[in-house]
Write a structure and sequence with these properties.
single chain, alpha+beta, BirA Bifunctional Protein, domain 2, nine-stranded mixed sheet, 12 strands
Amino acid sequence: MGPEHPPLPGDLWRPNASQPMLQARAELLARMRAFFQQRGVMEVETPLLSAHANPDPAIDSMAVTCDGARHWLHSSPEFAMKRLLAAGSGPIYQLCKVFRDGESGRLHNPEFSLLEWYRPGFDHLRLMDEVAELVSSLAGREFAVEHLAYAELFQRHLGVDPETAELAELAELARRHGIDLVGGDLERDAWLDLLMSHLIEPQLGREGLSFVFAYPCSQAALARLGRYQGRQVAERFELYIQGMEIANGFHELTDPAEQARRFAQDNRRREQQHRAAMPLDRHLLAALEQGLPDCAGVALGVDRLLMALEGADSLQQVIAFAFDRA
């Protein structure tokens, strides 16, 4: 091997995951497919590359050049799967790789595996039940399940109402718990995200499955709005196991005008953060114009679920080759 190709140090050519873990992963994927086959949910494949990207300010898409034009690796198969739903596919699921820039660490890898499925006729509450059934089926045992409203969580753990607390009160709460930001001039949702991720999430799912639902409307993302205990809320949920976010589900927004408004709002936020606006998915908006059936959908992190079921400490233990060995 010449000087242009020096040998790799150590054993970096080897996989991160052990052989028993790779076998456990293969069995998990097979059981996932069997679960949906038994329920009449069709497996689909959609493109990993798109001329459009997700404008969500919390996500950085990876750009590539193809045939002289800029395209993006998808961060979720959601937009393409909704086009299939609008075309009459019925219930569908997909197991695929997705890509998000700047995400590396114990619970993150820039390329990771996602299970995403959509159920026409379901709302987010009914889909939560199916997510619990899937996880129990994959684990081969029943879990204790709890459902926790977002506002109730903040009141229980931090003694504040997330909708009415003053920004100064949220900032002081963060400081008292060791979350001290230099020049911490944040919007309400940013403070709430910090408090949620640092102080509340680690306590969730310790004894089973914790579903958090009834999020603030400002965190609706692609969910429709509804009411819970007299408040207007986003009809979405997240699943936590052992302090890790495992799944993110929605009673899906079907209004094309509202979807376009939220896309534009996301791009404005990106520009305020001095980041590039993303090209909006006109195919998705056209599909919504045609008519998306009333449905609920959820994205579940396969790697994190495998971590939880196998007792692994990091994502790198459950994937064949992490980013530094890819």
